[in-house]
Amino acid sequence: MNDSPTSNTHSSNTHSRAPIPGERTVRVTTGARLHFGLLDTAAPFGGVGVMVDQPATEIVVRPNAAFVADDSIIGRATKIVTRLCHHVGWDGLPACQINLVAAPPSHCGLGSGTQLSMAIAESICAFFDVDIAAETLAVEIAGRGKRSAIGVHGYYAGGLIDERADSPTDLNPLNHRIELPESWRVIVMRPKAEATTISGDTEIEQFSALKLATAEAKSNLIHILDHEILPAARAADFATFASSVQRYNYASGMFFASVQGGPYHGEDVARLIDETIGRGGHGVGQSSWGPGVFAWFESAGDLERFTDNLPADVDVIAKTKPKHQPRSIEIES
């Protein structure tokens, strides 16, 4: 896949059947995205987050006599591949089999929709030798990056991602990418109590109901990001990084207080965050709309000690670490 801003493939008015790729298997594996919070409630939004190793998303594409996909992804895959067909001028869905091997729990704030859509789009392109520019693949084929570009940039590059723009764009540019220390660890949890999830049309409705962020509130977030989070990440200063991420997450969450009842999504998430801080968690916050909650630790040992006596009403989604590598693409002939 071409990660440059130009592409060798364009839409065509001349339609043809998709090529037959031969006996090959394509496997795309990517990580998950933690979102620390947006910089604004209106486009171009902007924000900061980080890719983590687990929970992973893995897609495999194989030869088949017709287009098929696992039931859990058939709707999403059909839409993505239909957009690809229109882009390259194929008449009809291409013959292949798309399998979902691994995926995070959906609607937990882990950016699973973006990672899954990107993996489907890129695996199909690799399977049929279609070369499409990275931004085109993300925006036009996968249909991602509308409100947050962290997951797209993280898919291609890994690392801590700061994305923002001065005016609305199809995909906000990557402002900074920083690799956090290999030794740092993060836990992702959620309350066992069933929570209302926010995605799709509900997410659009929630955003439309938000008040515009004040200049003072936006300035405060930018200050925390530029003068605390980013410098601490570059310097591997764990204490400052964790403290500033926690304050940034709270301040950004207050943008959404009118629709989620406070800086966090509901009483159970707020209680889990308070309890995690009380038990010695650092850099604690809600990822995106939640209910996923993250907490940072300076070492694997610190994380294991924290998890020794977790409350019974907490589900651990992942004990993981920052992911610095881009998604992996394996082609087996």
TrEMBL record:
One example GO MF annotation: kinase activity
Biased composition (Low complexity): 1-16
Organism, scientific name: Rubripirellula reticaptiva
Keywords, ordered alphabetically: ATP-binding, Kinase, Nucleotide-binding, Transferase
Chain positions covered by the region annotation Disordered: 1-24
Pfam families: GHMP_kinases_C, GHMP_kinases_N
Domain GHMP kinase N-terminal, first and last residues per copy: 78-152
Domain GHMP kinase C-terminal: 258-312
Keyword tRNA-binding carried by entry: no
Cited InterPro entries: GHMP_kinase_C_dom, GHMP_kinase_N_dom, RFAP_synthase, Ribosomal_Su5_D2-typ_SF
Protein name in UniProt: GHMP kinase C-terminal domain-containing protein
